Amino acid sequence: DIKLSSRVQRIKPSPTLAVTALAAQLKAQGRDIIGLGAGEPDFDTPESIKQAGITAIREGKTKYTPVGGTVGLKKAIIDKFARDNGHDYKPEQILVSCGGKQSFYNLTQALLNEGDEVIIPAPYWVSYPDMVLLADGKPVIVTADQSQHFKMTPAQLEAAINSKTRLVVINSPSNPTGVAYTREELAALGQVLLRHPNVLVATDDMYEHILFRGQTFCNILMACPELYPQTMVLNGVSKAYSMTGWRIGYAAGPVEIIKAMTNIQSQSTSNPTSISQEAAQAALNGDQGCVEEMRAAFEKRHDYLHKALNEIPGVDCLPADGTFYLFPGMQGAMQALGYDNDIDFSSMLLEKVGVALVPGSAFGLDGHMRLSFATSMENLEKAVERIAKAVQG
Ligand code: PLP
């Protein structure tokens, strides 16, 4: 009998990656499956960014770099923060990692002792609670359901904070709901956090550039600049530039925390891939037209899917402010068909009509489905038709 650590037994594999893998497996068996589980843009990485990677290989930029990122990429990140967010950072306040995932992982490892609490509003990105558990911390889930537009209120935040609280996570626009906090809402949450200067806030800005209806991006530090000494800004190139496979994310914040996170990284992965860093630098410094092109396509698909879903009986879907996800409430449809949990309901949709979705409970809120519209309009139309058929029995 092989004995595994208690640490690894606390966590589960990413459910979103699992749905994608199951859909791929069924497809390989010849089943006609429409996958709406994917958490990545369906576009190719823009050509100029690819070329930067190819040039990096040709020029021999294929060796170790500084653990925390090359001088050039850190400068591009600092410029990006100044340009897009009005944030002022020095190179020693930046850490480049192997995707946004590693950024958050490093943060939890650098910050948490056993029993330290991390406030995570639900619905949440699937990895936050498990990464907190891996760091011996305790996820404190604050439920923000559809009636409050999936947004944590200042009163909920205040009530969740105690002497063990180390970190609060805010992801806006959000995976899985697509909903974004307004500047005023962020400022109000910020007022609560200013009363607790020992509590850090991590703002996960991964979907910053995918916003609809002309909305402009705001994070909690932009809304409340006094939070600078207690804020970690997390971002990356995966979603904005369709670079998920390149694995580049970055974090910015107080020097001591970035230094500790860099130490963790120096004893795990070391630097992210040298070639990917060159490509990410080109992405951040280059023409941003490609970002707008993808954003516009996502908005068009969003508008179609949001309307079409609401036309299905028993489905109640809020519009998204951004991202490429919708998170409709399916309670009506589930009840009508006699389902009491969304996991069985999503299995039925996969089995019966070949549509792969991720159940809301994977994100901490039962009764919903996350649909990714990072796929063609044709696939979305087919998926809607099939879901409607399944729901109508
Ligand atoms: N944060 C959020 C909210 C995400 O949805 C994702 C990816 O799904 C990430 C971070 C991490 O992205 P990556 O590790 O691919 O850069």
UniProtKB/TrEMBL annotation:
> What keywords would UniProt list here?
Aminotransferase, Pyridoxal phosphate, Transferase
Short name of one Pfam family: Aminotran_1_2
GO biological process terms on file: amino acid metabolic process
Q: Which domain of life is it from?
A: Bacteria
| Cofactor requirements of the protein | pyridoxal 5'-phosphate
Enumerate the Gene3D superfamilies for this protein.
Answer: Aspartate Aminotransferase, domain 1, Type I PLP-dependent aspartate aminotransferase-like (Major domain)
List the InterPro entries hit by this protein, alphabetically. Answer: Aminotransferase_I/II_large, AspAT/PAT-like, NHTrfase_class1_PyrdxlP-BS, PyrdxlP-dep_Trfase, PyrdxlP-dep_Trfase_major, PyrdxlP-dep_Trfase_small
The portions of this protein that span the membrane are: none
- Give residue ranges for domain Aminotransferase class I/classII large: 32-387
Its family remark reads: Belongs to the class-I pyridoxal-phosphate-dependent aminotransferase family.
Full protein name = Aminotransferase
Source organism per entry reads Ectothiorhodosinus mongolicus
Supply the source organism's classification: Bacteria, Pseudomonadati, Pseudomonadota, Gammaproteobacteria, Chromatiales
